[in-house]
Amino acid sequence: MEASEESHLPNYMKDDNVSQETKNLIASLPSDKDFMGYGLYNYKGCWYYPNTLQAVLDVQKHFKPRDTDIILASLPKGGTTWLKSLVFAVVHREKYRENPQTHPLLSQNPHDLVPFLEIELYANSQVPDLTKFPSPMIFSTHIHLQALREATTKASSPCKIVYVCRGIKDTFVSGWHYRNMLHRTKMDQATFELMFDAYCRGVLLYGPYWEHVLSYWKGSLEDKENVLFMKYEEIIKEPRIQVKRLAEFLNCPFTAEEEECGSVEEILKLCSLRNLSNLEVNKKGTTRIGLDSQIFFRKGEVGDWKNHLTPQMAKTVDEIIECRLRDMSISGAVLSGLDPSFLISGGKRSGVGGGAIRVIGRKNVIISPQRKKSWVSAAVKGAGNSTNDPKWLDDASQKASEYVKEKGSEVGNVSSQKGQELQNQMERAKDYIFGKAGEAMDSVAENAKRASEYVTEKGKEAKEETVSRTDKAKDFIVEKAGDIKDTATDMRNKTSKYVGDKATEAKEAILPPKTDA
């Protein structure tokens, strides 16, 4: 299907704005089709529509961010709209503190306030002059981190990158509804299954899903100062904590006064999906990239996939994610939409038992339940213990966070200082184990020999004892047989005499007595 023939489709899905150089490149790339039949091309491990690939190449060639700029990254339908709203509100909160009714989020769609790099700014072979934008400027992208870094590494200093990850099942379902609205139709179950199959194969714009997520996950571990990995499910579960974490990462943390006057709560209320979706600006009209404003707002719920996927579909996704992420610290359960807690993983799945936790990003650092408890206890003591103070819990949490960071740094320093000592200890342990193994083998051989001799000796004794007992039994039987024979003979004689006596008595009783003639 020729994407250019459908005028209602967004430009990024079309193939009508591609340079000859890019056309030559596309001709050499692996190709496939999405579930609707539109051509996709695999460039350096990611799938793109032709116009999108052209824009990505232009971003890599021309985009040069300032160190004050912020880039928001995500997969399509992975929490992009919400992240744009939150970051814009956090960064610009001071400007609209006195006149909140003039806040841009009340009159403009979040996608118009935070422009896409490849979908808007560098689309249609444009090369915008970004120096005219105020600082800090917030940009958005769906580009894989490795592809994005071909542009960001040209900057003299790195900019901040915030990535939001959403469970794959909910991302898929949200994408399904988006494509229905995009194509202005209600697609049938057969088409739903085609899209599901393509998703599982990774053949989707910017996919595969797991490669995209892992690129930013690894990036956040390698450069935690400049890459923040956030989880959609955690923002839903603990919005206040996550927004404060976001502000700290962007070097604009909330002051104690701001927290006390409810600044965090005001931002969360303004940026709630319910509030944004009910604004007139997001119900009508179109965005600058030509899409209906309302297309970006639906439920935003966690677990809505249960209303769309069959149990077998859900199982298939779980198995794919488990297979793809088996060797990674990241948990497949999170990406399949089962459990949002995977930055710190515990239990048998992570290979750490007894309730211990593994701190991701620090190799070989295991915190036992006892040590974890002592860290928190020390931090809470530092914050005081007055439960009558409503700020006590927040203060304790802050102290705990600072204490853990401090201890984490200490662990890192100790690890580097003790590296050689640990290696020496391992060598000594290896020698000790080999030595003990040799001794154990000698001991086993000696014990085996002794056991063999013992068994042989005892076997001989048992044989002799058996023969002796057999002879004694034989003599006993012969002796008893003789006794029985003598007894039987005696009994026979006595019986014969008894019978003879009785016969004589009977005879005398029957016959008359003898008389003299």
TrEMBL record:
UniProt key word Transferase: yes
Residue stretches making up the Sulfotransferase domain? 67-328
Q: What class of enzyme is it?
A: transferase
One GO MF term on file is: sulfotransferase activity
The answer to whether keyword Transferase applies is: yes
User: Domain of life of the organism in this record?
Assistant: Eukaryota
Cite the entry's keywords alphabetically: Transferase
Q: What is its EC number?
A: 2.8.2.-
Q: Which family is this sequence assigned to?
A: Belongs to the sulfotransferase 1 family.
Mind telling me what this protein is named?
Sulfotransferase
**Record organism:** Arabidopsis thaliana x Arabidopsis arenosa
